[in-house]
Specification:
Layout (H helix, E strand, L loop, with lengths): L1 H4 L1 H5 L8 H19 L5 H26 L15 H5 L2
Amino acid sequence: MGVEKRAKLLFGSLSGATTGAMKQKGWEGVTGEVNAVGGYGRSVAEMKKKWVCRKSETKNKMASVKREQQKTGGVKTNQKKSATWTAEFWA
């Protein structure tokens, strides 16, 4: 299922329908899927940190591309423009 399919659960606010235990189970599911494919043996905490870092890196990269594209003088960048940060994240 992955993070994208569980995004509402993992990143949504806590409520009567969503508990901390449910979020933890969601992250455990993501961690299990990643470990099954990659074999790294990451913990839930490491997986959360990896997600936050990767998301930040991707947003910074896209901001850099945007700055390059908006420079005065029509400077061309050799980086492609993605529609969203998630598209770039999974590329």
